[in-house]
Structures are given as C-alpha cells and as structure tokens.
Amino acid sequence: MVITSRPENHIAQIFPDSISTHIDIPSGRDVKPGDGTSDDIRIFLRSRLDAMGMEEAWIVQAVDYLAPRAAGIFIWATTVADFLRLNPKVQFSVLQLKDDTEGLESLYFLYSTVITTSFGHGLTEAEIKAVTSIMGAMTFARQPLNDDALIRLLGVKSRDILEFVRRGLMSVIDSGPILHFHHRLFEDFLPSFSFWQANLSDIQDRNLHECQLAALCLNCMVSSKLHFNMCNLESSNIKNVDIQATVKTAISPLVSYSSTFWADNLVLTPYDETSMEVVKFVMYEKLLFWIEVMNVLGKAHEVSAILKRAL
Fold first, then answer.
1. Are residues 123 and 188 both part of a single domain?
2. Which residues pair with 2 in a beta bridge?
3. Are 125 and 95 a contacting pair, CB within 8 Å?
4. pLDDT bucket at 54, cuts 50 / 70 / 90
5. Which residues, at least 6 apart from 170, have a Cβ–Cβ distance to it below 8 Å?
6. CA–CA dist 276, 266 (Å, integer)
7. Same structural domain, 192 and 215
C-alpha cells in the first residue's frame, strides 16, 4: 500500500520506520533540475502545451521558464497549465511580469494571479456579487452546491452570470457539472492573508456567506419544494419500493442540502427577527415534512441534534 501525504508529525507517528518505508519527494528549495519530480513536471507541461497547438520553439521557452517555478509541486503545474488554456501566449506574458517566489508562496502567488487576471478589474456590481457569493458558498458550504442552488443563492434567472464565474475559475475548479475547487490548498488560500483583491474582499466574510446559505436553506424549506409525501409513496409499506432511486428523483439536491444543513448555517448567523419568523414557520408548518425528508434520506438519527443546534 502506498500512502502520500504532507510530512506531518501525527502521520509519521502512525506509520513509524519499523512498519513502513518513508520516501521523501522533494519540493520547494530542495528540488534540483535533474530530480524525477522536475522531469515529470516538464513532461506534463510539454504535453499540455502541445495539446494547445503551440509551436515547438514557444513550448521549449515556456517549459524552461515554468518547470523550475513549479518547484516540484504538481498542483502548481496543473493550475498553470489550466490558466494558460484560454490564451496561452497572453496568459504566459502575464506570468512573466510577476516576481518569482518559491514553494507554497509561489502557489499562492499563482492563485492571486488567476483571481486578478479573471476578476481584477472592470467588473459590474452584479458580477462582483456573483463572484463573491459563489466563491464564498464554495468555501463555506458543507458540501458542493449544484447550479440550481447557486442560481437561487444569487437571486437571478439567467445562468450567464454563473458561466462567467465558471470561466474565470476554470484553472482552479473541477471540470464536472458541480462547481468544486479541485485542491484543498485553494480553499486554504481564500481565507488567508495571502489573498487580497479589494473588490472581492467579501469572499473572506464568513458571516456574510453563512447568512446567505442560511437564507437559501430556509427559503427552500418554506417553499413548495418541501411538502407532504415528498416521494409520492402510496402507503407507508415500502418493502417493494426502490427507495434510493425514488429519493434520487423526488428530492432535489437543494432540498437535501437545506434539510441537512439549515441549522449549521443558522447558528453562525446573527440573530434577527425576520430569520426567526421564517424558522418559526418551518417549525409550525413544515416540521413533519422535514422529518419525512430526513427519514427517506436515511438521516433520521440527525434530527434531534439539528433541532438542538437550531434551539
């Protein structure tokens, strides 16, 4: 069994030398030009740039410049390759204007370049709100939200604004249908002091995003999306019902997320009368419907703890 991780003490204690063989993979200042890691990164970058249809002389120049700056950190190489994808020569010139740094600082510096290049200037108020709300939700939501939930979070009908954000983040998100940062380091970067973009400073305001997520959940629960007999079961005898398939089609991801996490967002939201009125409505009018959803989701054991957090 091969295990890869950062060299943290508690991991080394669990796997001492007596029962495992430790192999150090160099990074940062420890990387030398002839190291296998550097060679792998050069091969990877060359392959990606060749797939973009770039000419050989330019590829050689770009790889010679980028590979040493990756400092053995493969996520740096994959991020920079995705960053170059939209317009390789223009994006490469942007990187060349930046000062050199090393190691994790270099990765954070690359992340800053991605954000500045995509969202650093010329944004409308609607675009600023979309970028901050979506990136905040991606950072603080308990699990990734689908496009429908994010559209409702923004309070807009058009998906154009969501696609605008998706294009700007293409080098740091997965390529799948659900917006999700592809590496935990980017989530570490956003709340850190290394992130600074004046027009996007609200991304770091956790209270703001918890309030927005709580409102998203409660608005879903007071709506017609949460109702009696969510799965349209003919009786309580479900021995012959494929309940998992039924739940998948009858209960939307937004209803599932809202039912599971509404109290987690609520406890981090400042008290206000409007929110309390919504919570009271849910408790008085939708309580049994919510418990039904938690039952069919297989989460009935969580109901008591959720109610205690809300209380």
1. yes
2. none
3. no
4. very high
5. 82, 85, 86
6. 10
7. no
Residue 155 has pLDDT above 80, yes or no: yes
Whole-model pTM: value is 0.80
Number of structural domains (the chain) is: 3
Closest listed residue to residue 29, CA positions, set 138, 94, 102: 102
| Percent of the chain surpassing pLDDT 90 | 42
Domain boundary residue, one of 85, 111, 130: 85
Last residue of a domain, one of 36, 67, 85: 85
Per-residue confidence band for 279, with pLDDT thresholds at 50, 70 and 90:
very high
